[in-house]
Every structure is written in C-alpha cells, then in structure tokens.
Amino acid sequence: MDEFWMERALELAALGRFTTSPNPMVGAVVLDANGQLAGEGFHAAAGQPHGEALALRQAGARTQGGSLYVTLEPCCHHGRTPPCTDAVLAAGIRRVVAAMADPDPRVAGGGLERLRQAGVTVIQGVGEARARALNQAFLHRVRHGRPWGVLKWAASVDGRIATQTGASQWISGIPARQWVHRLRAQCDAVLVGAGTVYSDNPLLTSRGQRQPEPRRVVVSRRLRLPRQARLWDQAAASTMVFHSPGADPVAVSQLEQQGVECVALEPCCPRTVLEHLTQRGCNKVLWECGPALAAAAVQEGCVQEIAAVQAPKLLGGLEAFTPLGDLRITTMAQSLPLRHSRLERCGDDLICRFHLGSPTADIPPERRSPSLHGGGP
C-alpha cells in the first residue's frame, strides 16, 4: 500500500516538471486515520507553497492521526515559507513516508529526525529510485554546484552533423525535431556557440511547450556574432551572451540595445558559464552547440548526458562536421564510457540517450549550491 500512494505522490511531483527550478519537484498525499485519501498537492514553482503544505491544507481536519506520503524529506528550517515539519506536526500527522532525504545541507535528514523525535512514525526509501530519477538534475546541482548538462546532436549514421560545406538542415525528420522541442522544455537553458548562431540562425525555443521559455545562452568570447539573428528577438525568449572581458565594447552595446543580457566572464568557458547559470536558478541545461564548444563542455565535466538523434542517412566526406571536436584521446583506454543507454524510435530516426561516465572530481562542499526548496521556494 505504501508503494501505491508513493506512486501517486510521484505522479503529482512530475506535474511541476517544467516550472520548479531551482527547486526540486515534490508531490505529497495525505490519508486520514482510516487510510482514505484526504488531500493531495505538488510544488508548482519557486515562491509557491510546498506540496506537503498544499496536501495538508486540502485534507483539513482529516489530517489528525493520518499519514503523509511525500517524495522528498519535509524541510525543517525557515525560508520564504515556514518549515514543513511544523505544519506536519501541527496537523496531527502520525505517520510520514518519504521517498528520500533532502540533500540540501540545511535539511539533510534533519526534517525526518525532527518528526521522529516528536513521536511521528517515519519510513524512508519507498520509491527512492524513481524519486531520484525525477529530480536527477536538482540532485546533481546540489552536489556539484552546477546544472545537469545534456549534450544533444543530430547526425547521420556515419556520424556527420553537416556536409563538407556546412549544410545541416535538415538531417533529422520532423518528429525528431519536435522531440527536441520537448527536450528543451525540460531544461532551464539552451546553450550554443557563435558558430551555431551564424550557420543555423536558431530560435532555440520549446515552441510554447514551456512558459517561460528556457533561457537562450550564447557563449562567444570575442563577440563575433551577426548583427541580426533570431536569438536577439527577446519577444520569443530571453537571451544571454557570455563573453570575455576584452570583447569589443561596441558589440556589447549593440546587443544590449536589442535587450540581450551580456555577461563578461574570466575565463569565459563552459565551467564558468554553468557556475553563473547555477546562480540564475538553472538545474538542467541543454548544449546544442558545435563540435569545439561541445568538446570543451565534455572536457570540463559540464556534460552528464548525451542525447543523440541518429538519422538513416549517409553524408560521408573526410572533412564533414562531426558532433565533437578534439578530446585529445589517442588510445581506446582513454575513451569516455557511456552507460545507462536508452533507445527510442522517433519517426524514421533513432534517439539514443546515454549517461557520460566522465572522470570529473566533485566540487568541494563549500562551492556546492544549496537547495532552494527547503523552507524557501
């Protein structure tokens, strides 16, 4: 029975998939003392009530002696909202089933321990694997201090993303391109380099599947960018450009006049860009860039997942473009392993998903990013 109600809580949590960053997705279910459904809730967005609070509110007086199922440990400290543990105790809940502990160092098991000390029966770990998968990006950000990175490309069977002349539209079919729109909707930012802006003039939106649209990000150290581009239209979505401090000030001024936010970073590289985006509340980012920037992102540990669209086409050509630039790999022993493979057909194309087993060291605890869920979305 615990598994049944936790499954419902996880379904509720997933309703916040496109809106909760930088907070995690959290769902909650309240049963009354007779085991009957009394209330449900999920965290919809930062600044809005937690799932536990909404479920308790809906249940009303039926919470006395009841049970709470929640996908993430209730918070136990004050933020923009009061501690959920206080609300649970005030409601007279006698049993709490939590899928997993909150990795936020301000919580980190303290919420469940407080409930135990108050005499509440606490069960932890029901549905934990799915809860972790649901909040994979959030958990990665809290642990490593930077968003979960997905590197996406569309390539022919022989591994080309464009012809020798640079022609790339379109390698994949319409269903696969629509799948990419859905993928963007699951991310907080979409990143490209200057070369992609020039060659593809992309829009980089989810085509309305997420509101607000994911932040569009261009990484261009020298700001050698076209004067006119669809990315500069801020009516479609907001755009940020990261550049080196020594970039042309005239180019900065021209972009800012079009409403584009320009940010100077030293060094201007994937790692520093993601650290900045972490402070902007990004849990998950999508790299849709060219080979050189993609290789740099991989080498700097900024990519945790590969999403490769394979089209049933052959392009050939020794000088044709490939998805990744030089990774300085000279032996098979140096190759980067891919794991947790998942394949799905999308029209005539095949979508391959992998986790990248890159050997990156953890960021020290003092540089990790705290969760904004506990007590303060």
Summarize the structure.
With 377 residues, the protein is of the alpha/beta class. It has helices at 2-13, 51-59, 84-90, 110-117, 128-134, 136-144, 174-185, 194-200, 249-257, 270-279, 291-299, and strands at 27-31, 37-42, 67-70, 95-98, 121-124, 148-156, 189-193, 215-219, 239-243, 261-264, 284-287, 305-311, 338-346, 349-356.
Tell me what you see in this structure.
By secondary structure, the chain is an alpha/beta fold. The protein has helices spanning 2-13, 51-59, 84-90, 110-117, 128-134, 136-144, 174-185, 194-200, 249-257, 270-279, 291-299, and strands at 27-31, 37-42, 67-70, 95-98, 121-124, 148-156, 189-193, 215-219, 239-243, 261-264, 284-287, 305-311, 338-346, 349-356. A 9-stranded mixed β-sheet has the order 10-9-8-7-11-6-12-14-13, sandwiched between helices. Strands 2-1-3-4-5 form a 5-stranded mixed β-sheet, with helices on both faces. α3 (84-90) runs parallel beside α4 (110-117). The chain is elongated. The chain starts with a helix and ends in a 21-residue tail after the last strand. Residues 358-377 have low confidence and may be disordered.
Any descriptors?
single chain, 377 residues, alpha/beta, nine-stranded mixed β-sheet, five-stranded mixed β-sheet
Radius of gyration: 23 Å
- Structural class estimated from helices and strands: alpha/beta
* Helical coverage, percent range: 25-40%
Indicate the overall shape: elongated
SSE order and pairing:
Layout: H1 2-13, E1 27-31, E2 37-42, H2 51-59, E3 67-70, H3 84-90, E4 95-98, H4 110-117, E5 121-124, H5 128-134, H6 136-144, E6 148-156, H7 174-185, E7 189-193, H8 194-200, E8 215-219, E9 239-243, H9 249-257, E10 261-264, H10 270-279, E11 284-287, H11 291-299, E12 305-311, E13 338-346, E14 349-356
